[in-house]
Amino acid sequence: MSSTVSRFPIGGPPPLRRTRVVAADDHPVILLGVRHALEAFDDIALLAQARQSTELVESLQRVSADVIVTDLAMPCGRYGDGLALIGYLRRHFPAVRIVVLTMLGNGALLRRLFEAGVAAVVGKGDDLAHIGLAVRHAMNDVRYVSPSLRAALERSGARNGRATGPLTLSPREIEVLRLFASGLSVSEIGVRLNRSVKTVSSHKVAALRKLGVAGDAELIEYAWANGLAHRPMAHAEVS
Known about the structure:
CATH topology of the largest domain: Rossmann fold
Domain Response regulatory: 20-139
Largest sheet: 6 strands, parallel
Radius of gyration: 18 Å
GO biological process, one term: regulation of DNA-templated transcription
Distance between the termini: 22 Å
CATH superfamily of the largest domain: Response regulator
Number of helices: 10
Helix content: 40-55%
Keywords: DNA-binding, Phosphoprotein
Order of helices and strands: EHEHEHEHEHEHHHHH
GO molecular function, one term: DNA binding
CATH architecture of the largest domain: 3-Layer(aba) Sandwich
Domain HTH luxR-type: 162-227
Number of domains: 2
Strand order of the largest sheet: 2-1-3-4-5-6
Structural class: alpha/beta
């Protein structure tokens, strides 16, 4: 993420007390960046940091937080990641706003996040200051999308109602596709999502049919090309 941090007079009026934040990401350098970003906002206090979902939930049980700033793809942990983790957080901590940090720029996925109750999304390639702005917007119940993700979300909204491709997938199909393209087997996805192998396979087959791709290789390539999962370095195209 960009190291430039500045104070912005936008994002709504500062609350009467400091907004209490818990941050989660499996990369220490990202957590350091989040801390650095939030320190630039006098009205925001970072209470705790976590490396995976188990630590995140334990932190939320231990401290009284207003906002969660969390990575979307965060493997390991008892409560999973992605949409499954968002759903758990919304059910068990409904009063806490959620800000998602992500490298994934797929418009359909971003729309699903907002449908799941996320308050704001920030691209990891955006200026660090957008994290604090997203927290402020979340506390004022105003949706926030950072610049690098805004165009993707607007494109998906423009296609809504006559969609093909990712927009036709259900939230669970998107989640299965994301994990499958990230290298997990059907069995591993079942464990991660607490679903049977048969159920996961059904979601994968449905995604194949809806997207009109011929097999697993094309499905994975589609997910990589459309921002639903990161392309592993070993498979990255050489420019």
